[in-house]
């Protein structure tokens, strides 16, 4: 017969194994995920779907005739990973959002949309209709949303949504969408997104600008977007770095940007430009 002490040890061992398995299940995420989860965050909901038609929201949302409408979206077929984490007590949504955002921006990417607080619109729409998880609903002033395209192989679209609920619970949600075929449509940030990134992060890299290209659509689009962004906040000043910076800065001046608000910086990078807030 087993002694009482040995039986107690066996029971303890089983209990410890079950607890460990429970913790691993609560923190496990697919290996394909492009970010490391926030430390000690617990998976609240996880869904993976292959070959699904999916819309990546890259603009404001609203309800029209009881239907969700996005100002801009990318809709195509591909594989979707959808995961929501509950963030440990004592950490706010801004910390969790920044942790994930910095990982995304460290990769080769195109920023598509970024909003915070009430400018994002209805939290109920984001939670229940866009992201399909009711626990993501909370005060509109306590939310943030980001959408980027990752330009490595394979191409991916990644969306982040962070919220601090009324009960102070904090959640971070991620959609990672891998199109079956790469999206070749030219996509740009909104002027408000570009301005917000300059304010928050201090700089924006634009490798696609080529002032000497025969097809000027990309460069003209960036000139128009940056011009609108600068017009919406007349206090922002920038310096443009890169071999093509002189021509790009002249393009901004031709659109009416005052010379005092834009400067030519260093000749690097050789390709594209780097826009830095002064």
Automatic annotation (TrEMBL):
Pfam families: DUF4892. InterPro entries: DUF4892. This is DUF4892 domain-containing protein.
């Amino acid at each position: 017969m087993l002694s009482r002490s040995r039986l107690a040890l066996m029971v303890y061992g089983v209990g410890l194994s079950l607890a460990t398995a429970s913790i691993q299940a609560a923190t496990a995420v697919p290996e394909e995920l492009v970010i490391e989860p926030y430390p000690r965050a617990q998976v609240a909901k996880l869904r993976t779907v292959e070959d699904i038609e999916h819309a990546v929201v890259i603009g404001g949302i609203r309800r029209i005739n009881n239907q969700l409408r996005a100002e801009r979206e990318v809709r195509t077929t591909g594989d979707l990973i959808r995961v929501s984490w509950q963030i440990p007590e004592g950490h706010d949504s801004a910390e969790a959002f920044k942790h994930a955002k910095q990982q995304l921006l460290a990769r080769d990417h195109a920023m598509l949309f970024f909003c915070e607080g009430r400018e994002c619109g209805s939290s109920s729409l984001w939670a229940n209709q866009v992201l399909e998880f009711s626990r993501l609903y909370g005060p509109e002033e306590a939310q943030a949303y980001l959408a980027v395209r990752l330009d490595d192989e394979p191409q991916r679209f990644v969306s982040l949504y962070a919220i601090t609920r009324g009960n102070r619970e904090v959640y971070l949600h991620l959609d990672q969408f891998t199109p079956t075929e790469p999206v070749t449509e030219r996509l740009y940030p909104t002027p408000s997104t570009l301005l917000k990134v300059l304010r928050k992060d201090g700089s924006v890299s634009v490798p696609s600008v080529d002032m000497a290209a025969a097809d000027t659509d990309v460069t003209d689009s960036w000139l128009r977007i940056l011009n609108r962004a600068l017009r919406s906040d007349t206090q922002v000043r920038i310096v443009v770095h890169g071999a093509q910076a002189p021509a790009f800065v002249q393009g901004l001046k031709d659109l009416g940007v005052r010379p005092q608000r834009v400067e030519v910086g260093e000749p690097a990078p050789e390709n594209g430009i780097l826009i830095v807030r002064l």
